Fold each of these.
Amino acid sequence: MDGKDIFLSGVIIILLIGTLKTNGQQIHSATTDGNKALTDFDYNKPLFELNDEQSKNTYRHLRFSLISGYREGVKPTTGFGSFGNTLDTANGTARFYMINLSIQDLLTLGFNIPNNQFVLEVKDESKYRYTTNLGAKLDWMRKNTFCFEYLRPIGVYIDAATLKSEVARYFDVSVTKELRMTKVLVLKRTSLKDKIRSKGKTASMEIMNNVPLSDLSKITDSLQLPKLFDETGYIGLVDLNLDVNSSRSLTSLTNALRAHDLDLKEEMREIEMFVIHENFNNL
């Protein structure tokens, strides 16, 4: 059995096993039948339903972690850190969860860190994160995203390192932050003329008007270009009047910036990167 079969069947590490149901359906149905929608999915309910013996447990030592496959029809957790936290005072449990996220996002607790801050030392990068060359995103998500949950007693502290370690153990990988020589983009001014100072109109990220120059990194990140370093030293808001929709490549973006006496240069620099490394060749 390879890693994909293991994870799609729902890998479970628990100390006290709950009833094998998830929001009204059997776990194996939710994790192996990608076409079966969980129409009654409730983000506030744990993936396990506690049985009578466990719900009456006065010692409140219930604790488990769970990983399962893509949940059809369920929106991924989103926000600042794509995860959720809920408390069940009746059963004395606290729950951390992430829904329908890539392995890369799970390993960084759903903070949607741009791809240009990762080094993947893995057999198949396409299993870890979505890129536009992989086709329709929903099709990719059905095969390559997962749900993770960690349930513990209320009042028991769990830090980010513990959660990351728990996720990494399921996928048999390690995640570190290391200095690596990496290709980056450096933004520089090509003249002393100020062609970019904002005229103070309504802020717009669509055309980069009345916004900080540092916001340009949001465009380069979305284009999956190397990490951007702003070395212009420019202070204040700017108007670039970029047609962001047409600036969909490094060449077109660079040409648009040159009209404002700005330039993007590719350089190699040693910067801190997240490194995901497979421990065994089983995925």
Amino acid sequence: MIRPWHRVVPALLVLGACVSLAPAADWPQWMGPTRDGVWTETGLIDKFPAGGPKVLWRTPIAGGFAGPAVVGDRVYVTDYVTPDTDYKKLNNPSTRPPLDGKERVLCLDATSGKVLWKHEYDCHYEVSYPCGPRCTPTVADGKVYTLGSEGDLFCLDAAKGTVVWSKALKKEYNAATPIWGFCGHPLVDGKKLICLVGGKDSVAVAFDKDTGKELWRAVSAKEPGYAPPTIITAGGTRQLLIWDAEKLNGLDPETGKVYWSVPLAASYDMSIMAPRKGGDFLYAGGIGGKGKLLKLAKDKPAAEEVWTGKGTTAIYPINSTPIVDGEMMYGVDQDGALRGVKFATGERVWETFAPVAGGDRASNNGTAFLVKNGDRYWLFNERGELVVAKLTPKGYEEIDKAKILEPTGYSRPRDVVWSHPAFANQCVYARNDKEIVCVSLAK
């Protein structure tokens, strides 16, 4: 039985391939250019220099789980300004403490950290873990799209910060705020902006990305869940994956038509990770050892179950999405162990607590975010440490580690930082609830 305080804010957290939004040097959305956690930058350090990596700048910001996005010489990040920042008191997963404050969208100079513009609006919170927004901004075609914890969706001019269009999702779709807030990172696909919303027949909604006009709405569920919309190609067909609290769905991204649905309910409605595809297989899993591997049809958009997780196989992540690398999948499980598993069978090949808790057994919901770069991985853990390592079928090989941020959040019984960093311009951009930092990784 999982105790209530072991349930945590997802997305953070949170959470397939999609249309490429920018050159490889940019990090225009959650998990990078193609939302797969792959960084193609070259000319990077092999190990950290003596005394640690070079910090280029630090800029004060307020609370939030939303990671930054970086496009060209600009960094976009969201936060929440409120007088009450006692996270040890506020971060109780069983409550929704009422807070009043302002959500903000900040645009910073990527080379200096100087604030170039900000957009802010009053926002009343009643969510668990209420420190700030969850969704990384999505930047495409001169616009930046942000989704706040209480469903405030904005399209802003990326250069000036002026509002192009906006939606109050709760009001317009009669959607209740999930206990951990709106967490599905918005996805740009062609001319569409696809969002996780909620409400009757509107778990997923596609908007015209330039005007905000609704193009389609689809899927009903008791809760929308927290998993980001994800695009794959299988059976000769582009498919939109929407994992709600009850089932994993494959949709036509152009119309919202449901191609297939497979029952998959994570405990506490915590569908969080983006489903991962490898070859003809698709995997999704979450808290409570709930997961499934599906076989995708080769000739049509369809899926059938291969196996169901048992808690002693595969990976059941909370705050981060695993990465599929060849025949292996690497990711941090609910217990804080980094695991290497065979993707097609779920067989656990190895595990280690080293990158999350320094070798000690991690507390439940231990978190590290993985990014693949060539034959190495960069891992940003909940202790604010950046780790460079090799992950292979043979195991985990740590190359170096350096602390770049203090953990300012709180998850009983420890301080944490749960925000996916951005990698661009031969740098890492990471945030906690007090500052955002740019650290050089250039040789």
Amino acid sequence: MFPADPVAWMLIFARISAMLAIFPIFSSSYFPVQIRVALGALLSFLVAATLPPHAVAGLTSSWWGMVSVLATEVGIGLLLGFVSRMVFYALDAAGNIIATEMGLMLAADFNPFSNARTETIGVILNYLAITLFLSTDLHHWAIIAMQRSYVLLPIGGAGLSAGLFVDVVKRTSWIFVLAAQLSAPLIATSFVITLVFSVLGRAVPQMNVFAEHFAFRTMAGLFVFGLTLNLSAQHIMNYLHRLPEDMLRVAQLLGGRA
């Protein structure tokens, strides 16, 4: 389709490359930009072959029409990438909460998946999510969802609606739900340790409770974090499995279909 309709290929490339720019793994600083661009070009060729002929007929009759459709496709790709990345935003939030409860606030490290400094616990959770994402072939399902998005949302057919706004806000709230689920055992452990040392501070006034309880919080936090890592992986998988369906649902709402 590329030799016959390079404009359609370019518009497809705009949506796919915009999504890959913030999609988990592909947006990592460890993932070369050249390979990401090449992957976007390859996927655009494959998707273009599945579209009907003259898929962009009438949309690019003028220069401003072309720019408008191109900007729309870039916005669609960014929104789909944002929706697929919500789980990893939740992991960063959970890592910050857990590190605060464990007393590891100063042990921040560079997170290659968000290109920002993140608490070490958050980096561990991100690596766990990436491992689960790749080992269960969800990256293939995400690519299939991207291809199917052109059925629900043709090129240039996007439109904002109240249903889309409500859906995105609801999905954003899942960030806090998942962060609370992952950090709940550590919050409970920190509360129990604080309560115990508060009682000890009353019973033994000579004890420096403020200095002594930090080591116990860190050791108990690491112990509980290791014990609950399998449970955390199950929670993460529950949200990762929704990723292709979430992409298609957002594409459906953008296309004006409830």
Amino acid sequence: MSLIDKFRKPSREDFGDYELNKLRKEYKNENIEVFASSLKYLVDLDIYNNLFEVYSNWEEPVPLLSDETAEIANESSLLVLAYENLSRSPKLFSELIDYPKFYYLYPFIEWVYSMYLGRRLISEDVKRIFKSDIGERIVFNLEDFDKVEIISEPTPEFFQKLRKLKWKDIKTKKFHSKLEKVLRFFVFENFGFKEGAFIAKQMEIILFLAGCSAVNEGKEKIDENDVIRAYMALFKIIETDISKLIDKREK
């Protein structure tokens, strides 16, 4: 180490590596390396930064409380069933997976769709997303959502099983939080309110997807591998030009 390196101010990447090494020592999970390499890939290619720019300048293509929004939402049986079967009350803290955990999946898809289209979305774009099977692909196949040909249909029972999920143990719950810290350090050089909100929405999605992983595997508790798989699914969504999947479905 040179004298300059010794006294230079640590970067957020340095802090990210520090947290990553702590994680490796505490959790002997080989999939941590897959998580780290996938995250660094998105950061190094500026894909994560490009998505954050879309989020930072976002303008809703359809007014959220309009009749048109309700009409578009009803195009997705996945969203309808989630609304009908997941708890919508924030007071029910005993339930790990509730409707707010699911809610941000479709807005997140909209941001990614806009990023790959290279323009702001209009209402017709949103209709294409909700009429497509992109949500079902992600929920039932996670990081393999772009490979499957036969897509599972959502059922009330699937969401009812999500409601009953618990953490495997407190160590698994902490694993979920510690991965978020690594993500935050690597993605942002500066961290403020908008960056915090961007990450917070993703953490909701990741918990929901971890629950999907557990239910898809027939489990009643979320373990470390479910959490990792949820992150890998999120990273795969970000790096995939989902406009091709959505357009293919429409055709």
